[in-house]
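Protein record

Derive tokens from sequence
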Amino acid sequence: MATIYDMTAEWSEVAEMLGDSEVDDQVIWDTLEAIEGEIEAKAEGYGKVIRQLEHDMDGLAQETKRMQTRKKTLDNRVKALKKRLQEAMEIIGKEKIKTDLFSFYIQKNPPNFQMDAESVYDIPEEYLVYKEPEINASKAIEFLKGQEGQKAEWGHLEQGRSLRIR
């Protein structure tokens, strides 16, 4: 069976035949029929592979979600165990514990800012961070769809194409 690349070349040859008045019509129709049959069989094979890969991706997505849930559970348990040990050490007044396998110690964390002002605008300007503006793409698309030529001086719409399989 021919490859997709070979079939594309064959379609180009048919296009040339169509422009050549010396080529018999029956030869063109026979060639077209043969190529169409090959590409349909090839497309069906591609479809089967694509469906299997999509199925595999769905399974991986589910497994990823399951593993993320498990990771979160383990993370919460580690935090709870650390908190309990720290509380116990603080209650007995012990800042450090050394065993054969581990060294435990309580240290100060870096300072963390807590806002006491009622509004962010009550903070001096030099401590504020302004973000770059973002485009509201859905609103821009809605506007441009109503414009002649679907464009404005600040942007335009482009529409690509993609293969759908049912």
Q: What stands out?
A: Strands lie at 96-98, 103-105, 151-152, 155-156. The two ends are 24 Å apart (CA to CA). The chain is about 55% helix and 5% strand.
